[in-house]
Amino acid sequence: MVRGGWCVCRRRLVAARRWEPFEVLGEYTGYLVPPSRDGPYVCKLVQDEADWEAVSVDASKAGNELRFVNDYRGISEQPNVSFSSCFIDGLPRTLLVVTRPVAFGEEFLADYGQSYWAARGGGSKGGGADE
């Protein structure tokens, strides 16, 4: 399925056009859940405003194609997108933003972070934004 300049192919998201740094792929969507919830499709929202309690987004049963962005480890030397927490209309959101040029057909890859792999017994994956 090609939509919005990307294509879901075999549980991975690939570029259906060339993407440049700072372009926004879209919003990581799903159900809002307590921050204690864990799972392969759970993304923790970083809160910068005191009015909001910490929440996470669980895309395992609801969400969009961005849940098919995989971790870069074992696939590439570095990620080409990053998760960016922000507030839109006063509500917490997580966007995926391109960090380097992405060619047509290239897979979108993020850094899930060391804590993601450590929680799954894979602390040896190495690297990561939250080391």
Automatic annotation (TrEMBL):
Gene3D superfamilies: SET domain
Organism expressing this protein natively: Vitrella brassicaformis (strain CCMP3155)
Taxonomy of the source species: Eukaryota, Sar, Alveolata, Colpodellida, Vitrellaceae
Taxonomic superkingdom: Eukaryota
InterPro entries noted in UniProt: SET_dom (IPR001214), SET_dom_sf (IPR046341)
Annotated SET domain residues: 12-113
Protein name (database record): SET domain-containing protein
